Amino acid sequence: MTDQPTKQKLWGGRFTGKTDPLMHAFNQSLKYDQRMHAADIRGSIAYAKALRRVGLLTEEEEVKMTQGLDAVGREWATGQFQPAADDEDIHTANERRLSELIGSLGGKLHTGRSRNDQVATDMRIWLLGEVDDIESSLKGLVRIMVERADKERDILLPGYTHLQRGQPIRWSHFLLSHAFSFRNDLERLQQLIPRISVLPLGSGALAGNPFSIDREFLAKELGFTSLAENSMWGVGDRDFIVEFLMWSSLTMTHMSRLAEDLIIYSTAEFGFVTLSDAYSTGSSMMPQKKNPDSLELLRGKSGRIFGSMAGFMMTLKGLPSTYNKDLQEDKEPLFDTVDNISASLKIAEGVIATMEVHGEQMQQALTMDVLATDLADYLVRKGVPFRETHHVSGRAVALAEARKCQLNGLSVEDYKGLHEKFSDDVVEVFDFEASVERRTSIGGPSRKTLDRQIAVLRAALGPK
Question: CB neighbours (10 Å) of residue 213?
Answer without folding.
Answer: 23
